[in-house]
Predict the structure of GntR family transcriptional regulator.
Amino acid sequence: MEFRDNKAIYLQIADYVCEHILLGKWKADEKVPSVRELAVEMEVNPNTVMRTYELLQNKNIINNKRGIGFFVDENATEHVKTYRKIQFIDDELPVVFRNIYLLNIGFDELEAKYKTFVKENFNA
């Protein structure tokens, strides 16, 4: 995985896990990769993955079954959406709004681009 400099690595790994859940690659009550497995896959220190898993546990996205491992929470999809929505609204949307204002982009143009994006990427 290519990490960006503008965001902590553990948060980028959390985004990766959340995306897998939202895309249905990791389903409710399914075991997620162990800390060591994900650390090897991401080429990071296991402590970084553990920090990610602790964050996701606090957000009720995954849970730890002692001695067995971490599992996707049965309501993970809703918890991920809530977590990611807050993150997007607080961190990313102000930048988007600033650029929309500065570049004088209209809502009609945005809507057309959004619909094209959805169609091309999600076959909706």
